[in-house]
Design a protein that fits this description.
single chain, 388 residues, alpha+beta, Heat Shock Protein 90, 2 domains, 5-stranded mixed β-sheet, 9 helices, 18% strand, EC 2.7.13.3, phosphoprotein, transmembrane helix, HATPase_dom, protein histidine kinase activity
């Protein structure tokens, strides 16, 4: 749980840092864009006045300063339209046309678009304002780049955060896998010696008390311990799947659970008449079903209830469902139940469903999820397996 909490804190920190960087970048970019826009508008007003001076010039006017102002505009796209909407001058436009007429039409359309967008300065050439020119302008390439830059930066920051979180989760999963594998193999090793000893003692007891009715049950439990140890020893390796009957697996689970649970809990099966044979590791898959059944028993809290194991098949898939009439799962907990360390029990490591998910998905290439759950009525888990 401590690892999980620390990982969640790091993820939250990375997301918050990304948001702060993005917001700061947007604010700075907006401020720069606004300042540059004001500066460009001021330049265009000076440029428009120069155009007015040029239009009103006579043979005695010194045009050197006017022409210098007009020629210094190398960045801002500008189109000058007369009062009839005809182009009289344009600068800094990349023209996409094949001939002179197409060029004129293109420049005219660009000028009208600037005018409609409100980027226009009207200069009256006469006192009655009947004769005028419209100086239409657009943002410079630099201004457009500055406006787009923060969004590009935001994308880079988000990509960095995603990569960092992915690396963090991968590292976490690798560390958890090492812990699980080590713990499982050590558990199998530690169980080996007492199980062998118990098997020897049962053999001696059978010779001394051949008619004792309890010895067969003790023998079953010891064999069960041996099976559990075998399961633990296989964690971390990829067991070879072999054809096996899902019907038999579910029957074994029901037989085992029925003998070891309260009589208040009824075990039911809904199995097809014909055996469903698929490639699987029977020992590990049986453990998955047992784990779901034990969780169902815990969910009923010693009250009357029913656990139903259902097996169905389609042309390409096989479905195994484990339903109970227990207390159900809260909606906010459903997405976390397969997360290592998460548990709603007072006692528990929160690893059972996580290991079950790993066995189903990694070893059997299937899928396990909560099909339905309602608080106070029960839960149904579904396992989907592909038929090969």
């Amino acid at each position: 749980m401590q690892w999980t909490d620390r990982t969640r804190q790091v993820k939250i920190f990375l997301v918050i840092a990304a948001i702060i960087i993005a917001v700061a970048s947007l604010l700075v970019s907006h401020s720069l864009t606004h300042d540059l826009s004001v500066q460009e508008k001021s330049k265009m007003q000076v440029w428009a006045e120069a155009m007015k001076s040029l239009s009103a010039a006579d043979e005695n006017t010194d045009l050197s300063l006017v022409l210098k102002v007009l020629d210094e505009n190398h960045t801002i796209p500008v189109v000058v339209l007369d009062n009839d909407g005809k182009v009289t001058e344009f600068r800094n436009l990349v023209i996409k046309a094949r001939n002179a007429q197409d060029s004129l039409n293109y420049v005219t359309s660009q000028g009208l678009q600037m005018k409609v967008a409100g980027q226009v300065i009207r200069i009256a050439l006469s006192k009655n304002h009947n004769d005028y020119i419209d100086v239409c302008y657009d943002d410079s390439l630099m201004l457009k780049r500055i406006a787009i830059y923060p969004y590009v930066q935001l994308g880079v920051v988000m990509l960095f955060v995603i990569v960092a979180i992915f690396a963090l989760l991968t590292s976490k999963r690798a560390e958890q896998n090492k812990v699980w594998v080590g713990l499982s193999k050590e558990t199998a090793h530690q169980l080996g010696t007492p199980i062998s000893s118990l098997m020897a003692w049962i053999t001696i007891l059978k010779e001394s008390y051949p008619d004792d009715e309890l010895l067969p049950e003790m023998d079953k439990d010891v064999k069960r311990l041996k099976l559990i140890a075998d399961r633990f020893s296989k964690i971390g390796s990829i067991p070879e799947p072999v054809p096996a009957s899902l019907n038999d697996v579910l029957r074994h689970v029901v037989d085992y659970m029925d003998r070891r649970t309260s009589k208040k809990i009824e075990m039911r099966t809904e199995l097809p008449t014909d055996d469903i044979i698929i490639n699987m590791n029977s020992s590990l898959f049986e453990w998955v079903i047992e784990n779901l059944c034990k969780n169902a028993v815990d969910a009923m809290g010693g009250k009357l209830g029913c656990i139903t194991l259902r097996l169905e098949e389609t042309e390409n898939r096989v479905y195994v469902e484990v339903s109970d009439t227990g207390k159900g799962i809260k909606k906010k907990d459903i997405r976390n139940i397969f997360r290592p360390g998460f548990t709603t029990k007072d006692r528990g490591w929160g690893l059972g469903l996580s290991l079950a998910k790993r066995i189903v998905e990694e070893y059997h290439h299937g899928k396990i999820y909560v099909k339905s759950s309602e608080v106070g009525k029960g839960t149904t888990f579904r396992i989907e397996l592909r038929k090969e």
